[in-house]
Amino acid sequence: MSGKHPNFLTPKIGLGCMNLSHAYGTPVAEQQAIESLHKAFEMGYRHFDTATLYGGGKNEQLVGKALAPLRDELFLASKCGMAIVEGKKIINGRPDNIRKQCEDSLKRLNTDHIDLYYLHRKDPNVAIEESVGALNDLVKEGKIGAIGLSEVSADTLRKAHTEAPISALQSEYSLWTRNPEIAVLKATQELDITFVAFSPLARGYLTNAVSSVDELEEKDIRRNMPRFDSEHYPKNRALLKDFFVIANEIGCTPAQLSLAWLLHQGDNVVAIPGTRFVEHMQNNLSGDSVSLTTSQLNDLNQLINQSTVSGPRYNAAQQKEIDTEEF
Question: Which PANTHER family does this entry report, sorted A to Z (predicted)?
Fold first, then answer.
């Protein structure tokens, strides 16, 4: 993947744009969001990630409006196969739908090509080879530069890779979500595929941004995530005390420590933390400059992992949407 575009792995931290329009409460006002994206570019971000789903297409429109003048200088990623249709989230990986969503994404993003286009979720009713075949047709037509998959298992990845080259796999990965370590991280390394980690700051948990679910806006997706509820979150917050001690000893912020740990998990790993705050963008971008010793990595691994974190990452309905391995 790095050979297709020099900015995909440099820097190793990109920007997840979802937070500006989707999932974490009230969307940011358009002009403020555009200014934030411009500042992100100015400070050094080159990999920008969005999706058809986010804000019902409004996030792509926002990214397109803000970044179109800079298009040749950045790496643009988006996703298809999951969208808001008549107020409901629908997963549809049929070839005709993938093509239509791509055409719509190109218009919203104000570009003639998307560097990396993911299947946002595997459609359980469509063979992965069929969906990937449709994406490969878009590659041949020059509408997308490369194919990605999101939240799929190692088995699905291998099947897809036999149909057409997969350049990137995106999945949630952080100290508190270790599912990629079961199989898919190793598979990406064996197949020379870039692993793109979303929610690398554990949806704000690792930065201590959330004291209680009660302080979140009503529409914030974390209100429906078990790890943030009143049963599990106090237990999870208790783990942060020692985590912050380690960050303080190293001389970095908790966010930078989280990202540094992640980037130490493999040369093919990149992270796309999402934020709506410019100061957080700057803080996060410095995460790849933090070096950790083997001892420090071991301490972090023992402190926050699948055995010490309380609660599943998704509720039952959300779990049905993904294809990743589970502990």
Answer: AFLATOXIN B1 ALDEHYDE REDUCTASE, ALDO-KETO REDUCTASE YAKC [NADP(+)]
Instruction: Give the pair of three-digit tokens for residue 230.
Output: 């009143």
- Residue 297 token pair: 């990595």
- Contact (Cβ atoms closer than 8 angstroms) between residue 7 and residue 266: no
pTM to 2 decimals? 0.96
Number of domains, the chain: 1
Q: How many Å apart are CA 99 and CA 214, to the nearest integer?
A: 41
CATH assignment of the domain containing 65: 3.20.20.100
Give a yes or no: residue 259 inside a domain.
no
The confidence band for 7, taking pLDDT boundaries of 50, 70 and 90, is very low
DSSP H helices, 110-232, are: 128-140, 154-163, 184-190
Least Cα distance to 313 among 238, 231, 225 occurs for 225
Kindly tell me the number of DSSP H helices and DSSP E strands found in the chain: 12, 10
- 273-287 tens-digit pLDDT: 999 999 999 999 999
Of residues 94, 84, 86, 8, the one with CA closest to residue 49 = 8
Q: What is the DSSP string of 240-267?
A: HHHHHHHHHHHTS-HHHHHHHHHHTT-T
- Domain range enclosing 269: 15-204+265-289
C-alpha 135/C-alpha 130 separation (Å) is: 9
**Neighbour count for residue 113 (Cβ, 10 Å):** 16
- Cite the active site residues: 54
Spatial CA neighbour of 323 closest among 120, 118, 122, 125 = 122
